[in-house]
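User: I'm curious whether this sequence folds into something compact or stays loose and floppy. Could you predict its structure so I can see for myself?
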Amino acid sequence: MSPLIPPATVALLLTLGGCTTGAIAAADVAAEAEKVLAQQSGVGGTVTCPEDLDDKVGAEIRCTLTAGGDRARYGVRVRVTAVDAHSVRFDVAVDRKPEGG
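Assistant: Here's the prediction. I'll summarize afterward.
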């Protein structure tokens, strides 16, 4: 894995503007993951998620992280751990090895 982004599992809390709607937009999940991973590592990166994330405990999607100047791409698992009327909490785990590596 890139020395810039250590393997990580981080908990994120996404506050929703209203009641939960059944899914969290892929762009919102990616933006929150980027923020927390950057705070943890001190290095910016781009997270992309191919689909929305259901707002049900246990739901998960696979996203991709491209870290800073590192051209390698890392898989990222995002899993919902808690849901209430105004927020969703989820864990983000970055793979230890790059995709295809």
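Summary: Confidence is low (pLDDT under 50) at residues 1-11. Residues 23 and 54 are 4 Å apart (CA to CA).
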